[in-house]
Amino acid sequence: MRGLMRVVIFTLLSLAALYAQAQAVYPTREVKLVAGFAGFDVQGDYFMVAPAKTPQAIQMTLAKAVDEISHQTDTIAFIEGMHARPLYGGPKETKAFLEGEYTKWKTLIDAVGIKVD
User: Fold this and answer.
1) How far apart are CA 43 and CA 64, in angstroms?
2) Quick one: DSSP state of residue 45?
3) In the chain, which ranges are continuous DSSP H helix?
4) Are residues 13 and 70 in the same domain?
5) Is the domain of 65 the same as that of 14?
6) Which of 21, 39, 57, 63 gets the most CB atoms within 10 Å of its CB?
7) What are phi and psi of 17, to 5 degrees?
8) Residue 53 sits in the same domain as residue 108
9) Beta-carbon contacts of residue 104 (< 8 Å; ≥ 6 apart)
10) Computed from CA positions of residues 93, 99, 104, 109, in that sequence, does the dihedral angle turn out positive or negative?
11) What pTM did the predictor assign?
12) Same domain for 61 and 107?
């Protein structure tokens, strides 16, 4: 029908969320089901990396600057607006986080038999 516009208004209901802070992200919505597996929080984590042979002094200078910026109110609001969380700390904490994530996901992949085609 030429010239006829149909307007449909939907109200969306949150049925599932794959991260631990779902209710905080959607405070005005009742989250009906939180899906996932214990210990497997599917959410974006942001951190900075440098080439492997970057001198320790430069790594620490960058880590300190990023840490100061990531604790600023406007930066926190921006990151929360993306429904993400920053990874605080320096090179040791980042390495430990990545190793932990690798181990966690590799264990799951091996347990359920996921294979790359």
Assistant:
1) 24
2) E
3) 22-25, 56-70, 73-81, 91-112
4) no
5) no
6) 63
7) -145, 145
8) yes
9) 39, 40
10) positive
11) 0.59
12) yes
Structure tokens given for 25: 């992200």
Please give the tally of structural domains in the chain.
2
pLDDT digits (tens, 9 = 90+) for 39-97: 666 666 777 888 889 999 999 999 999 999 989 999 989 988 887 777 788 888 888 98
* Six token digits for residue 13: 């209901």
How many whole angstroms separate alpha carbon 31 and alpha carbon 23?
6
If asked whether residues 50 and 106 sit together in one domain, one would say yes
Instruction: Evaluate whether residue 117 is within a structural domain.
Output: no
CA distance linking residue 61 with residue 48, whole number of Å: 12
Dihedral (CA of 34, 37, 38, 43) sign: negative
> Running DSSP on this structure, what letter comes out for residue 34?
B
CA distances from 116 to 21, 40, 113 (A): 31, 21, 10
